[in-house]
Amino acid sequence: MHILSIRPEKILYFYMASCIAVLIFNLFYIFFDRFQNEKFEKRRLDLTDILTGEMHLLSCGGTVSAAHQRKMRRFLAKPEKLRSFEYSMPESGEDVTDEDKKEYFRQMRPVFLGLAEVYARRDPIEKAYFARVIELFGIDRGQESGDGIIEFLNGLVIQKDVYARENALRALLSIGNKDMILAVWQKMQENEIHHSSRLLSDGLLKFTGDREELARLLFAHMEEFDCRLALPILQFVRILGADFREEILRIVKSDRADKELRLEGIRYFRKCPYEPAKEVLKNLVIYRDHVDWEYSAVAATSLQAYPGPDTEICLKDGLKAYNWYVRLNCAEALISGLQIPQIRLYDVYNGTDRYAIEILKYASDRYADGENNYV
After folding, report:
1. Which pTM value belongs to this model?
2. Distance CA 209, CA 174 (A)
3. Among residues 7, 56, 120, 123, which one has the fewest Cβ atoms lying within 10 Å of its Cβ?
4. Residues 236 and 203 sit within 8 Å (Cβ to Cβ)
C-alpha cells in the first residue's frame, strides 16, 4: 500500500497515540524514580541507626556481634545496598568518633574479605564500586601481607576497564604498603597495562604511608619499567621534591633516555635546583637550533630557579630563537620568574630584533594580567 493512500486522520491518530505513550512512560518513570529514592532514603536512615548503635557499643568496650556481621554480609552483597551503606555511615561528632569508625571496620574486616570473593565474580562496574568502598573506608589500611581483598584489587589492576583499574590502584595506595605498590607496578609492566601517567602520579601522591620511602623504592627500580610507568614515578619524585639530583641529571644528559623522561627531569631541576644542572640547562637554550625545541623551552622555564648574570644573558640570547615557545618561555622566565627590571632589558628593547622586542612586551602584558603558562 502506497503511503499516499493512507488517510491523513490515521497518521494523526498514530501520532497522538505515540505522544500519549511517551507521556505515560515519562509519568511512570517519574513515579518509579521517586519511589526508588524514598526507598533508598528509608533504608539509609534505618541503616544509620543500626550503625550508630553498633558504634556506641564499641565506644563502651563492646564488640560487633556475629549476628550483625552475618546480616551485613548478606546485605552488602547487593550493590544498591552497598551504596546505601556508603551513605549511611554516621558523621564523626560527639555521638560517633573517628576511632569508633576505625574499630568498627577493623572488626568488620572478615565481612569485607568474604565480600571480595563475591564481587570478584561480578561485572566490572560492580567490581570498581566495591574497590572504591574499600578505599573510602580504609578497609585494609595498614595491612602488611596479602589477603583476599588485596588479591581482589591486584586482579583489577590488570583489567581492561579503566574505572575498575583506577579504583583498585587508589584502594591499594590507601593501604599504605610501599612493597605492594612496587609489586603493582611490576604487575602492570608484565601485563603491558597502559594507564594515564597523570592518574598514576596523582595516585602516588595519595599514598597513605611514607611517601619518601615509596619514592626511593620506586626510583631504585625505575629502570625495570618502560616510559609509561617510569614517567609517573619521575613526576611523583618531582612534585614530592625528593633528592635524586645526581641520578636525574644523568637521565637529562643521556641521549638514550626517553624524551618524556628527559623533559620531566628538566622540570625537576626547577623544583629542586642543582648547580651542576645549571650548565646543562643553559646549553639547551644556547644550542637551541641543534636540539628539539621542547628541551630548550622547558630548560628556559627551569632556569628561573638559577638567578645570576650568566642566566640573564642566556635567557636574553634565547629571545632570538626561531621557535615561538622558546622565545616566550625565555621572556617569561626573565620577567615573571627572575623579575628582571625593565631598565636591565633596555638592551633588548633598543635592539634590532623585532621578534625579541614583541615577545618581551607580550610576556610583560601577560605578567601584568596574572597569566603565566609555560610549556
Report:
1. 0.82
2. 8
3. 7
4. no
